[in-house]
Structure formats: structure tokens, C-alpha cells
Amino acid sequence: MVVLNKIYTKTGDSGETALGDGTRVPKTSPRVAAYGTVDEVNATVGLARLHANGDMHDMLALIQNDLFDLGADLCRPEMDKDKDAEYPPLRLATSQVERLEGEIDAMNANLATLRSFILPGGSPLAAHLHLCRTVSRRAERLAVELAASESVNPAAVKYLNRLSDWFFVASRVANENGAKDVLWVPGANR
């Protein structure tokens, strides 16, 4: 259980922070950048939820909880030591990736095939979901960069990849199943 009764600790004043295993690292480390950007994704999802209702609202709530799981996963390095840990760290599960895939397939089943790229926008919810998509793509790039040099749960990277796809499809659903998508017109302003 988490207990936060004092918010500031002053331990980060020198530009370092603690990872989930207690290791102190610079706040500019790739691992901190990756899980910090996951936190940004979560904040954008919170904005999107303000415009969502019904199933969309409920699915976004699940995603927000998953993103905390993902942040907890990314802030805890050295996966090979998980089995020896006194308290096994929380790792994102393949089932969370599979849930996203199922939701993408269900949402996409009612959408017309795209014949053009779409511009972010349409409804307020769709615009916010596009912002979620772009920030999650950035989080994915940072997680992939981290995985090139340090241990990262493969399910974490897969989750971020599926998540940006989820946001794209959900934005189309939010635009009346694509009827209000704003289509890109190549070279329209020449």
C-alpha cells in the first residue's frame, strides 16, 4: 500500500531521483524519461475522459490504471532479479496487451476503411484522443530507446505500441464512427 503524507522530500533537489528499487539516477536518465512520459500519457487520458462517457469512459479508466502499472514496471530495472526480490515488482502482463487488441478490433469493426490520413480533430474527445496517441508514441520511442541499453519488459513496449493504435481507432469512434473524421488533402494549400 502506498502512503503519501509528505509530498516534498528535497531528495531530488540535486537533479537525481530514486527508481523503484531505490537506486539513485539522474532525472535525465532514459528510464526516468520513459516512465515520466508514461505519466504524461496518463494525464492526457485524464483530459480525454472529461469528454467521454459509457464504454469509452470505462475503457479509458482501465487504460489509466494500466499506465500506472506500466510506470511501476518501467521504474524498476533489472528484470532478471525479479525472481529473487523480497517483494516481486509489478510487471505489465501480456493479458493487458491482449485486452487492448480486443478493444481495438471491436471498435474497428464498425469503422469504414480509411482512404486518406486523418487530421487530429473533429470532436473534442477525438482531438484529446489524438493528443493521447502522439504522447503515447513518444513514450513508446523512449521505452524502445531504453530497451536498447537496459532491461525492459517486452510487454511494456508492446502495450505502448498497441495503445497508440487504440487511441487512433478510438478517435475515429469519437468522430461518429469516422463520419466526422477530418481528412488530409495532400497539397491542398499550394
Automatic annotation (TrEMBL):
Keyword Cell inner membrane assigned: no
Pathway the protein contributes to: Cofactor biosynthesis; adenosylcobalamin biosynthesis; adenosylcobalamin from cob(II)yrinate a,c-diamide: step 2/7
EC numbers: 2.5.1.17
Coiled-coil ranges (or none): 90-117
Top-level class of the enzyme under EC nomenclature: transferase
Family: Belongs to the Cob(I)alamin adenosyltransferase family.
Record has Nucleotide-binding as a keyword: yes
Record-given protein name: Corrinoid adenosyltransferase
